[in-house]
Amino acid sequence: KAKEMGKRQLVLFSEDIETDKLERSQLELALHAALARKELRVHYQPKIELGSGRIVGAEALMRWNHPDKGPIGPDRFIPIAEESRLIIPMGRWIIDETCRQIREWSDAGMRGIKVAVNISAVQFRSPDLAGDIERIVASHGISPDQLELEVTESVLMEDPAGVAAIMARLRLIGLTIAIDDFGTGYSSLAYLKTFPVSVLKIDRTFVRDLETDTNDKGIAEAIVSMAAVLGMRVVAEGVETAAQAGILQAMGCGLAQGYFFGKPMDKTLFEDHWRDRQADGALAIAG
Ligand code: C2E
Ligand code: MG
Ligand code: MG
Ligand code: MG
């Protein structure tokens, strides 16, 4: 009986795998089409300078509205795009779109907004990433220092010498590099200093319980002092409350992003938000 049940479960389980495989390959095809038909969108989440309350940057985040299934989150479609290497043209697309947007904003007088784009490990290791980005930036006539690249610690782990060389080239072009989700990987202080990184982004898992969890607070403080030693800036991710923003500011964290300041939003909403914050950013934080 038990054996029979085991078999049955195995069948069900393998059916689940098959369904999942099928769904993934269907999504992959749909994603191909979406890229070709220009159905992908970019949302921008503001990055705030805690001292002034002003928007000094944004993170560009990819959005996909599937024709039948509706919105599908990046946590679902990015892994599929990575596996199929479709992330390479998709990544190139979002860099192009972001540079176009930076240009449009600066032409409209919205200056001083630095926009960060996420780069997957697969894309980071693709041939001539730096050359590709350099050409895209030049084609929009923007300054390279208006574009930031976010990579996770996992990128640093494989072939560190190769990665350092690519980063050095990106720095030479004038781009800045941020380490995303910092604290969830295994980078040490000694290891980190070998890469030309300008920004550490404190992962939101350490921000969430900042008010109650002394360990998380300690980790956030350690990242802030580590960044100071290495001459890097710090961005706290996932800030959802005024109390969290206050604690982070008190420990010397310069920048923050999160629902408390604004969710990722389309470009029009971002523009409204930027105008409001330029006018009374400091007041918004104090209140
Ligand atoms: P990430 O780069 O760490 O981006 C931050 C994620 O946290 C975003 O999720 C954002 O919406 C979410 N977030 C921001 N503030 C808060 C907050 O206060 N609370 C909570 N709970 N969440 C917050 P999103 O847009 O769903 O993206 C998820 C991940 O997908 C990103 O994590 C990034 O790793 C990846 N991703 C998104 N767009 C791209 C892209 O264009 N290229 C690549 N390679 N990856 C991307
Ligand atoms: Mg990111
Ligand atoms: Mg992150
Ligand atoms: Mg992430």
TrEMBL record:
Molecular function as annotated in GO: cyclic-guanylate-specific phosphodiesterase activity
Residue ranges of domain EAL in the record: 24-278
Record key words, sorted: Membrane, Transmembrane, Transmembrane helix
Keyword Transmembrane helix among record annotations: yes
Annotated GO biological process: cellular response to nitric oxide
Protein name: EAL domain-containing protein
Taxonomic classification: Bacteria, Pseudomonadati, Pseudomonadota, Betaproteobacteria, Burkholderiales
Parent sequence residues shown: 617 to 903 of 903
